[in-house]
C-alpha cells in the first residue's frame, strides 16, 4: 500500500502545501521557489506537513551555494549565502479546500574573488496555493489501528512581488541571485501521506511553470520531488517529538532569454534530508537540513553546499 | 463536489494563461539599430589566460609562461538568419585586443536590427588596407604603435604579438620566446579570416544590444593544427616558413562561448 501510494503521488503533479504542525505528519511539502525566488537553483527546503492542522508561522531558511565566476576551469569559485525569513500559513476554506500562503523576505550576499561583496535584500515572491483534499485523515487517525491515507492536489500562483535585477543575469555567475523571478509562475502540487501508528511516510510531487518576465528572461520550469519518513514519540500529553529522514530532488529546465536557451542553466540536485520537530500544545518548533547527495546544476557551475531551516508555527 | 470543479476551473484558467504567455517568444519584431559587443576572452585550453603568473605545458612538452597576448581583429561582418550579411564600415573595422591592458572588447556600433547567426572577421590587416599607405590607416596606426603591433611602417603590422618564457626537455634554462606574426609588408600575406557560428542567435534592435563572448585559446598559436616547437626556434618573426603556420593556428583559436542577449550594458 505504501508503495502504491508513493507511485501514485509521484505521477501526479503539483505542489506545495504548507503544512503545519507536525510537519512531518503525512505529506510533506517542498516549497521552493519562494526561497531563492528563482530559477537555476530555487532554494527549497522541504517541510513535511501535518495535513490536519492549520497554522501560521515563521520560517528561516539558510542556503549555501558556491558558483563559478567565469567560464573557465580556473575561474574562481565564489560563495553565496541565501537567507530567507518567511511568513506562512495554512487556512481552511471549506472542509476539503485548504489555502496556503507564503510571503518571503530575502537577504542574500555573495563575495567575489576581489573581496567585493554584493548584497540584495527585500520581499520575495508571494505564493498562494489552494489544495483540494481527495483523501483525508479521520481526526483520531494518529491512534487508529489501520493505516490512514491522505492525498491532496492543488494549484496556485507565485506573484512577482520580489524584484528581479537584470544586471545579475548578465555576468557568468549564478543567475539565480535574485529576490524574485519577476514573473507570474504557476504551481501544481500533489501530496500523499500515510500514517500507521506512530510511523508516517509522505511523498510529494510539485511542478512550477515559470513564465517570461518583463525583461524577457524566463527561468526554467522546476520539478520538486520528496519522500520522507518519520516517527512520532509522545513524551507527554502535550509534548511530542518527531524525527524525520527523507530524500528530495529538484530538476530544472534551462532558462531562456528572448525565447533562446541560456547556456549553463538548468540541472538537477538530489538531497538527503534530516529533520526534527517538537510539538508543545499549539506550538511546533522544527529544524531540518538538506545535504546534496549528487548534483549537476548550471552545467556544474553552481553547487549547493547545504540548506538549513528553522521554524516556529502556531496551530490555529 | 463543487470544490473539485472550482479547482478544475482554476487549473484550466492557469493552463490557458500559461499557454498564452509562452507564445510570445518570437513575436517581437526587431527594428532600429544598436551596438554588438564582442568580448575576446583569452584562454589556455579550458583555463583562463593569466599573464606571467601561471604556466602550462603543451602537447610538445614545452612549459610556457605567457606575458603578452595582443592581436588585431578586423573587417567584421555579421550574417543574419535570412542569410544576409552586414559588413561593418571598413575604416572603423580595425581593433587591437590586448590581454595586458585588459582592452579585449570590440564594440560594433549602429548594427541594423536583426537576428544574427554568425560572425566573420579577419585576424590582422588586409593588403587592401595596408596598401592605402600610412595616411590611409587613420587613427589605427597610432593604436598599433602604442600596443606594440607595428614593426615599422615598411615592415608592417604585427597581427599577433605573443611573448613569454618557456622551458623544455632540451631548453632547461628559462628562455624568452617571441612570436610576432604579420604580413611583412606586402611580400607575404598572412591576413586570415574566421567565420564562427554564434550558437545562440544574437538579437539586435533599438532595445537589444547583444554581447558575444568569444574565447581565444592561446595554446593553439604554437600547438594547434600546426606544431611549432619553441625549443627549435624561440623567436618567430619574419619567417616565410613558420609565420604562415602561426597565422593558420591563430585564425583557428577562436570559438564562441555564449551569446548574451539583452540591453547588454555590462558583462
TrEMBL record, chain A:
Put simply, this protein is called Transporter
Write down the species. Maribacter sedimenticola
UniProtKB/TrEMBL annotation, chain B:
Report whether Signal shows up as a keyword of the record.
yes
Q: Which residues form the Copper-binding protein MbnP-like domain?
A: 34-237
Q: Which Pfam families match?
A: MbnP
Specify the superkingdom.
Answer: Bacteria
- In Swiss-Prot or TrEMBL terms, this protein is called Copper-binding protein MbnP-like domain-containing protein
- Which keywords accompany this UniProt record? Signal
The reply to whether Cytoplasm figures as a keyword in the UniProt entry is no
Report the PROSITE patterns cross-referenced here: PROKAR_LIPOPROTEIN
Q: Which InterPro entries match?
A: MbnP-like_dom
Query: Where do the TM regions start and end?
Result: none
Q: Which residues form the signal peptide?
A: 1-21
Q: Which residues form a coiled coil?
A: none
Amino acid at each position: 500500500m505504501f508503495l502504491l501510494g508513493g507511485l501514485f503521488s509521484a505521477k501526479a503533479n503539483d505542489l506545495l502545501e504548507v503544512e503545519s504542525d507536525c510537519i512531518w505528519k503525512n505529506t510533506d511539502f517542498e516549497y521552493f521557489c519562494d526561497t531563492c525566488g528563482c530559477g537555476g537553483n530555487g532554494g527549497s527546503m522541504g517541510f513535511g506537513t501535518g495535513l490536519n492542522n492549520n497554522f501560521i508561522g515563521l520560517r528561516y531558511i539558510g542556503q549555501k551555494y558556491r558558483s563559478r565566476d567565469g567560464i573557465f576551469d580556473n575561474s574562481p569559485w565564489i560563495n553565496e549565502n541565501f537567507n530567507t525569513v518567511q511568513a506562512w500559513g495554512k487556512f481552511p476554506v471549506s472542509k476539503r479546500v485548504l489555502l496556503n500562503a507564503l510571503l518571503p523576505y530575502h537577504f542574500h550576499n555573495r563575495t567575489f574573488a576581489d573581496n567585493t561583496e554584493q548584497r540584495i535584500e527585500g520581499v520575495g515572491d508571494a505564493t498562494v496555493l489552494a489544495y483540494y483534499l481527495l483523501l483525508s485523515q479521520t481526526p483520531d487517525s494518529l491512534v487508529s489501528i489501520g493505516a490512514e491515507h491522505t492525498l491532496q492536489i492543488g494549484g496556485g500562483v507565485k506573484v512577482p512581488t520580489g524584484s528581479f535585477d537584470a544586471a545579475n543575469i548578465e555576468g557568468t555567475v549564478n543567475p539565480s541571485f535574485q529576490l524574485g523571478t519577476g514573473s507570474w509562475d504557476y504551481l501544481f502540487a500533489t501530496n500523499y501521506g500515510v500514517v500507521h501508528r506512530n510511523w508516517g511516510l509522505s511523498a510529494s510531487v510539485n511542478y512550477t511553470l515559470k513564465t517570461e518576465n518583463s525583461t524577457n528572461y524566463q527561468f526554467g520550469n522546476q520539478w520538486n520531488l520528496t519522500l520522507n519518513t518519520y516517527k512520532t514519540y509522545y513524551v507527554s500529553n502535550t509534548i511530542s517529538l518527531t524525527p524525520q529522514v527523507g530524500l528530495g530532488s529538484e530538476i530544472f529546465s534551462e532558462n531562456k532569454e528572448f525565447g533562446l536557451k541560456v547556456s549553463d542553466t538548468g540541472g538537477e540536485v538530489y538531497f538527503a534530508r534530516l529533520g526534527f520537530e517538537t510539538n508543545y500544545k499549539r506550538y511546533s518548533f522544527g529544524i531540518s537540513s538538506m545535504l546534496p547527495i549528487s548534483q549537476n546544476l548550471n552545467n556544474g557551475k553552481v553547487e549547493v553546499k547545504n540548506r538549513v531551516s528553522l521554524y516556529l508555527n502556531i496551530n490555529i | 463536489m463543487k470544490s473539485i470543479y472550482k479547482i478544475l476551473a482554476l487549473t484550466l484558467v492557469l493552463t490557458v494563461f500559461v499557454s498564452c504567455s509562452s507564445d510570445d517568444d518570437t513575436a517581437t519584431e526587431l527594428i532600429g539599430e544598436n551596438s554588438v559587443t564582442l568580448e575576446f576572452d583569452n584562454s589556455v585550453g579550458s583555463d583562463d589566460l593569466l599573464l606571467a603568473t601561471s604556466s602550462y605545458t603543451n602537447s610538445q612538452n614545452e612549459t610556457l609562461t605567457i606575458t603578452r597576448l595582443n592581436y588585431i581583429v578586423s573587417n567584421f561582418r555579421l550574417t543574419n538568419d535570412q542569410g544576409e550579411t552586414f559588413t561593418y564600415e571598413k575604416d572603423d573595422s580595425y581593433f587591437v585586443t590586448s590581454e595586458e591592458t585588459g582592452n579585449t572588447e570590440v564594440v560594433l556600433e549602429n548594427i541594423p536590427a536583426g537576428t544574427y547567426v554568425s560572425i566573420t572577421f579577419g585576424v590582422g590587416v588586409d593588403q587592401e588596407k595596408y596598401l592605402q599607405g600610412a595616411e590611409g590607416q587613420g587613427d589605427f596606426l597610432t593604436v598599433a604603435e602604442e600596443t606594440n603591433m607595428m614593426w615599422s611602417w615598411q615592415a608592417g603590422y604585427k597581427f599577433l604579438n605573443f611573448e613569454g618564457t618557456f622551458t623544455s626537455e632540451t631548453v632547461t634554462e628559462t628562455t624568452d620566446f617571441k612570436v610576432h606574426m604579420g604580413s611583412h609588408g606586402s611580400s607575404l600575406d598572412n591576413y586570415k579570416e574566421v567565420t564562427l557560428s554564434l550558437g545562440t542567435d544574437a538579437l539586435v534592435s533599438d532595445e537589444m544590444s547583444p554581447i558575444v563572448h568569444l574565447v581565444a585559446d592561446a595554446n593553439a598559436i604554437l600547438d594547434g593544427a600546426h606544431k611549432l616547437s619553441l625549443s627549435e626556434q624561440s623567436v618567430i618573426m619574419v619567417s616565410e616558413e613558420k609565420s604562415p603556420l602561426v597565422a593558420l593556428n591563430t585564425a583557428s583559436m577562436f570559438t564562441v562561448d555564449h551569446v548574451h542577449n539583452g540591453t547588454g550594458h555590462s558583462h
